[in-house]
Every structure is written in structure tokens, then in C-alpha cells.
Design brief:
Layout lengths: L9 E4 L7 H6 L4 E5 L2 H5 L4 H10 L2 E5 L12 H10 L3 E6 L1 H13 L28 E5 L11 E6 L4 E6 L7 E4 L9 H19 L7 H23 L4 H20 L4 H13 L3 H16 L4 H11 L7 H17 L14 H14 L1 H5 L7 H10 L2
Parallel strand pairs: 1-8, 2-3, 2-4, 4-5, 5-8
Antiparallel strand pairs: 6-7
Bound molecules: fe (ii) ion.
């Protein structure tokens, strides 16, 4: 064993904690730029978070025009506003798109290039970022999925190149993640499941990241899976169950820690080109590939997969092969209870698009691909995509 562990995000966790937002922001500056989606503002999700600013007379601007799965042009208006306004801190309130949006703004507010310039693809290095200039970010997630509140990642889509890429920049780690399960109560059942399965995949993929994983990240992966498996089904069936919402919020945050330490591999390597080419919501494409990647990986590292299988069925007895087989079936059953499209054909994907997805994965996602415990060539990836069709 030979590794170092560091994680810079302060996690403030618990029901009603979002009411502390103004106070938390004040630790990083006078003037806050808060980004969210209009739907969330209309639902009143920011009410208690903003109340503190008004009560304490603190200055903020609320930007409500974040789009789901934002494209590079979607940032332009917010970048102009934040450059003109001399803000001290950027806050993202919402799902992964909102938190990611805040992180990208934290760079673009003080750097000259467009947002895509800072995206790091396997075949395209990003423009340099001066960490001292990046604005501090506060993250307030309203879904239990992306884990963006504890990662240095921000996902951006480029329609010109039909690519989806990620800014990977340590200086955009949020200073503080306020994880308030009460904000997740109103999340519809299908989105609870879609985002929850994304979190599950973060932990699963990070567990199979041969390059970056450590015993410490392994522990976090298994614990994330344990919390998600226990609480996602209830949160899906009864969104008002606070025990389940809290359990899922914790599980998803753990899974976020896992990707910030180890990182996703083949699943997300396929997911990014698919999001860009097909327009699938991120969590949906994650679900589409999850089982196929697992089946094509096993029995490689079957001895480690046993640890995951045992989370699903601790009392199951059998040979290692039987435990593995039962574990895969358990994950299949786990996913089957959630009612949302889980095949590429549900999205009208064409055979040409299948080829593009595979080419893109090899072309600009080869770095995470090569971190997986099993090597997959173009033909293997093609088989995985077709098994997900
Ligand atoms: Fe993800």
C-alpha cells in the first residue's frame, strides 16, 4: 500500500442546512452569484437559502437560466454577468448541471477564454487555469446523483464538435457542500431513480478503476453502494421519506468522493459521447451501459466483485462463481424496479450513431477507458453498445 489522501471540500450535511447558505458564503466574500434553474426557483426550493441573505442584508444576484446538460453557448450570458459584477463567490443550487455550471463560471469569471477551452479531453489538453484567480464555489445539490458537490469536475456539451467533455480542475472543488436532504423531497420518482443510478455507477466504476483506486477509495465505494442499495428503492417509491432521502443524499455524496479520488471508467467513457450524440440525460445513459459493462468485465476481478455482491445478498451461499452470478442478477433486479428507458433503442439511436459513439469513446475518452480493470478494444466496446441497444 502506497498512497496519499486529501479532500478539500467541507461537507455540511443535514435537513434544513441550506438555511445556512448566506453565512457560509460570507466566509468567502461579500457578494454572491447564485445559479439555478427557473423550475427550482419557482418550486420555492431556494426560499430558505435566500432568506438568510435578506435577513443579514447580504448582496447576491440570482441567475435562474441554467439549462439541463448545458452546452457551451449556455454559459455566455452568465459569464458576461459575472465578469461585470465583481462577485466574490459562486453558488450552484440544483442538480449536477447547476453545480457544474457554477464551477465553470468560477473559472470563466476571471479567465479570458470560452468555457470549452478549459475542458480536458483525452486528446485535447485544457487551457491553463490560474488557481489563485478562480472564484470560490459553494454547492447546494437538490438531487442525489452526480456528486458534483464534492468533485473538481464540470461537464460541458459542444454541439459544434458533438462532444461532451469535462473540466477537471482542482481549484473548482467547492469550498463547501451543503447537502440538505429536505431539498430533494420534491424530486420526481423517475429523476430520483435516474440520478440515484448515476451515483451507484460512480461507486461501481471507481471500484474498478485500477489506476487511481486506493484501499481508502475502495472503502468509500463500498459504503456508497451500501447506502444507495438500502435507500434508493424507498426514496423512489416514497419521496417524502426523510430517512431514505437522507440515506440517498449521503450515499450519492460518498459516491462523489469516490469519483474525485478514483474516477469513472468504461461506463462514463461511453456515456459522454452518448449524451452528446443522442441527447440522453446523463443518468439515463449511465443506466443504459451499466449492466453490459459489468457483464463484459467479469470474471475479471471477480474476487473483488464478491464484496459488492454481498451487499445485495449478504446471506447467499455458494461458490465464487455462483456469488458473482447472483450479484449480477441482484443488480439487474435492483435496476429493473425503476421505471425509465434503459435501452439505446428507446431513444431511436441509429446504427450510424452506434459507430460514432464507439469511435468517440476510443477517440477522446481513452484515458478513463484505459483505467478500467479490463482492457476493451473497439470491437469490445461495440459489443457492449450493442448489448445495451
Ligand atoms: Fe455520472
Amino acid at each position: 500500500m502506497n498512497f496519499s489522501v486529501e479532500h478539500p471540500v467541507r461537507i455540511v450535511f443535514g435537513p434544513a442546512k441550506s438555511a445556512d447558505l448566506a453565512e457560509v458564503c460570507a466566509q468567502y466574500g461579500e457578494k454572491a452569484f447564485i445559479v439555478t434553474m427557473s423550475e427550482l426557483a419557482n418550486l420555492g426550493l431556494l426560499k430558505s437559502a435566500l432568506a438568510g441573505f435578506d435577513q443579514q442584508g447580504r448582496e447576491y444576484t440570482l441567475y435562474t437560466d441554467v439549462k439541463p446538460e448545458p452546452q457551451k453557448e449556455d454559459f455566455d450570458a452568465a459569464i458576461s454577468a459575472i465578469r461585470e459584477g465583481n462577485y466574490d463567490v459562486v453558488v450552484g443550487v440544483g442538480g449536477g448541471s447547476c453545480v457544474d455550471f457554477a464551477k465553470a463560471l468560477a473559472i470563466c469569471a476571471t479567465h479570458p477564454h470560452d468555457v470549452w477551452s478549459y475542458v480536458n479531453l483525452s486528446n485535447k489538453p485544457p487551457k491553463p487555469v490560474d488557481a489563485d484567480k478562480v472564484l470560490p464555489v459553494i454547492a447546494v445539490p437538490t438531487t442525489s446523483g452526480t456528486g458534483s458537490e464534492v468533485t473538481p469536475f464540470s461537464v460541458v456539451i459542444n454541439r459544434d464538435t458533438m462532444q461532451e467533455g469535462t473540466i477537471k480542475e482542482p481549484s473548482i472543488f467547492p469550498k463547501v457542500a451543503i447537502v440538505d436532504p429536505e431539498l430533494m423531497v420534491g424530486l420526481p420518482a423517475n429523476w430520483t431513480a435516474i440520478t440515484g443510478v448515476d451515483a451507484f455507477s460512480h461507486a461501481l466504476e471507481s471500484y474498478f478503476n485500477k489506476q487511481n483506486r486506493t484501499p481508502y477509495s475502495d472503502m468509500i465505494c463500498l459504503e456508497a453502494i451500501r447506502w444507495i442499495v438500502e435507500h434508493l428503492p424507498t426514496a423512489y417509491r416514497d419521496g417524502s421519506d426523510m430517512v431514505a432521502r437522507s440515506g440517498m443524499a449521503y450515499g450519492a455524496t460518498l459516491a462523489g468522493l469516490a469519483i474525485s479520488m478514483a474516477g469513472t471508467t468504461v461506463g462514463h467513457a461511453l456515456v459522454h459521447p452518448t449524451d452528446a450524440r443522442v441527447g440522453t440525460p446523463h443518468g439515463v445513459s449511465v443506466s443504459i451501459y451499466l449492466l453490459a459493462v459489468l457483464k463484459h468485465t467479469l470474471p475479471t476481478e471477480g474476487d473483488r466483485f464478491v464484496n459488492i455482491a454481498k451487499i445485495f445478498a449478504p446471506d447467499f451461499q455458494g461458490s465464487q462463481n455462483e456469488v458473482i452470478q447472483h450479484g449480477v442478477e441482484s443488480i439487474e433486479t435492483f435496476l429493473a424496479q425503476f421505471d425509465f428507458p434503459k435501452k439505446l433503442s428507446d431513444y431511436g439511436v441509429t446504427m450510424d450513431q452506434v459507430e460514432e459513439i464507439v469511435d468517440d469513446t476510443v477517440g477522446y475518452m481513452f484515458r478513463p477507458l484505459n483505467q478500467h480493470v479490463k482492457s476493451f478494444n473497439r470491437d469490445d466496446l461495440h459489443a457492449i453498445v450493442m448489448d445495451s441497444y
